Each structure stands twice: as C-alpha cells, then as structure tokens.
Amino acid sequence: MDYVKDDEWGLFPNFKKSEFVCHHTGLCLMTHKMMYTLQDIRKEYGKPMTISSGYRDVSHPVERSKTQPGEHSLGLAVDVLVHGYDAALLTMIAVEKGIKRIGVSQKGDFSERFLHLGMGDAVDPRFPVSMWSY
What we know:
- The chain has helices at residues 32-45, 61-64, 84-96; strands at residues 50-53, 77-81, 101-105, 114-118, 130-133.
- A 5-stranded mixed β-sheet has the order 1-2-4-3-5, with helices on one face.
- It contains 3 helices and 5 strands; from the N terminus they run αβαβαβββ.
- The model has no long low-confidence stretch (mean pLDDT 95).
- The protein is of the alpha+beta class and 134 residues long.
- Strand 3 (101-105) and strand 4 (114-118) form a beta hairpin.
C-alpha cells in the first residue's frame, strides 16, 4: 500500500495526521488514495469534518474483535462524526467522489452519530460495495 508519509500531510490542508492516528498504537498508515478522496470530499462539502476513527492497527481492540481486520486497518476507511441533513449531504458527496462502502450510524446521542466511509472494495474482495446501518 502507498501510505502517507509524515512530510506529505501538507497535501491535505483540511486534515491533520493526529486525527487519523490509531488510538491504540499511535501508528498512522492512511493511504494516499483515501486521503486524496477525503480532501476532495471536504472541499466540496465546505464544512469541517470531525474524524472519530481513522487508521486502526490490527492489534486495536475493535479490529481484534472481528473475524478479520477491516478497512480501517488498511488505511482505507474513516468514521466521520455527522448527523441529520449533513449526514445525507456528506453521503451524496462521498458517493460522487468514489466512496462505495458506507456505514450509517444515526441513532442515539447526536454527538455520537457517524458515517463510515470506506474504499476497501478497491483493493480487497473481502470488502464488497455496500451500504449498511449500525
């Protein structure tokens, strides 16, 4: 995979590396593909995007609880805190920009609602094009 190096984060002016670092290991292996796509989405969206989960190492408890690690462990997915109309708008823009895997969590406290935006379908058949709810 082609991961973003420390000196390349300036290519993504609306984001900081610290937003994508694994909360468990401190590593950050986001792919250029995901980050360029996120930057394009952010430019069209025109509003800040709060990343609640970016890269997750395979040793991260969430990844370890799965039968096999997910898109986050490949640097090809993020969770964005968003709700209501903004969630619908962000979904439409993400699809236009090539995101083909979207998880929707829009129940409960507004501050915890999010969209999972993933691109794992581009590199691994374990991640089919799909949309799901949590």
